[in-house]
Specification:
The structure is a single chain. By secondary structure, the protein is of the alpha/beta class. Helices cover 32% and strands 17% of the residues. Strands 4-3-5-10-6-9-8-7 form an eight-stranded mixed beta sheet, covered by helices on one side. Strands 1-2 form a two-stranded antiparallel ribbon. Strand 1 and strand 2 form a beta hairpin. Helix 3 packs across helix 9. The radius of gyration is 19 Å and the shape is globular. This is Peptidase M14 domain-containing protein. Keywords: Hydrolase, Metal-binding, Zinc.
């Protein structure tokens, strides 16, 4: 376990954040594992830089993959991965989709894919960004700080701000779909949740890590049929996380098999709430299961995207 820096019971200040940052080490290459996989996509898609992280702009450019030709009459779809950089299949699943399946959907949708929202986090295998902030609580399109939010006092991060700026530039009136690709890992319990408690100066309470794939839905916009279609498709690739004895996953109520419901993602600064998409969800894959390997996790992410889009194609008359 990597123990956090600071004094127990005292929230981190600037010195603790700086000490934490300098203790992080690069463990894999964003350039080799992500940027190099974007290059072969040129010619089929537009590979567009939309920003860069200020502490090392050359090392950490931010890229989106866009249609060669944007058609306003098509439904628009956003796929994001690597909001938490350490969640590998979110990044690699998005890249695998781009290389194997995306072109098949290009005639039906304006596909916008952002494979790695948090490249520093990817290299350091870290949930937070370099400022010890969780990017997935900072997607506030108006830059506001939401009262009562426990995760971050900051209104935005560079990771979220650049993505929001790009989406504004695209000027999509109504998004049809947004799928945000994530993982739930054993290190959530052994490192990141304890570190968050130490950062915020609060007592850490241990929780269970679910074994399997599940989805996070918006309780204000359930889309239960759509979620069931995704779960049925992913089941062919990997197992679905069961509810615990209290009918919960990660302490959130299970509303249907493999699906939990939370308050509106927009209201708590989640990436899944950054658009007004009619269909929006967060995937969660468990890479540490004895039943699952990395390839299955990546394939599960692709299966989820494909199922989500195929459902919309079949039911697109509802969007008119």
């Amino acid at each position: 376990m990597v123990f956090p820096i600071g004094t127990p019971g005292v929230p981190w200040g600037a010195a603790e954040r700086e000490a934490w940052l300098t203790s992080r080490v690069v463990q894999r290459s964003f350039s080799d594992e992500v940027l190099s996989k974007l290059e072969p996509l040129r010619g089929r898609f537009v590979v567009q830089q939309y920003g860069a992280l200020s502490h090392d702009p050359k090392r950490y450019p931010l890229y989106a993959v866009l249609p060669e030709r944007w058609c306003p009459e098509k439904p628009s779809v956003l796929i994001t991965g690597g909001v938490h950089g350490y969640e590998t299949s979110g990044v690699q699943g998005a890249l695998l989709f781009l290389h194997t399946k995306a072109q098949a959907y290009s005639d039906r949708f304006n596909l916008v894919v952002v494979p790695c929202v948090s490249p520093w986090g990817y290299e350091t295998i870290q949930r937070w960004n370099a400022q010890a902030v969780d990017p997935n609580r900072s997607f506030n399109p108006d830059g506001e700080v939401v009262p009562g939010r426990s995760f971050n006092p900051e209104p935005a991060t560079e990771e979220s701000r650049f993505l929001i700026q790009m989406l504004r530039y695209l000027n999509v009136n109504q998004w049809t779909c947004h799928i945000d690709l994530h993982e739930t890992t054993d290190t959530d319990a052994t490192e990141f949740r304890p570190a968050k408690a130490a950062r915020d100066g609060v007592q850490y309470t241990a929780g269970e890590i679910p074994d399997g794939f599940y989805l996070v839905s918006d309780e204000t916009n359930p889309q239960s049929e759509w979620h069931a279609h995704i779960i049925d498709a992913v089941r062919k690739v990997t197992h679905i996380a069961p509810a615990d004895e209290d009918g919960r996953i990660i302490n959130e109520r299970v509303v249907q098999e493999g699906v939990i419901a939370i308050p509106s993602p927009k209201s708590i600064g989640l990436c899944a709430g950054v658009t007004n998409a009619i269909y929006a969800t967060t995937t969660e894959v468990y890479p540490n299961s004895i039943q699952t390997d990395d390839d299955q996790c990546n394939a599960a992410q692709v299966a989820a995207i494909e199922a989500a889009l195929s459902y919309i194609v079949k039911h697109e008359s509802k969007l008119e």
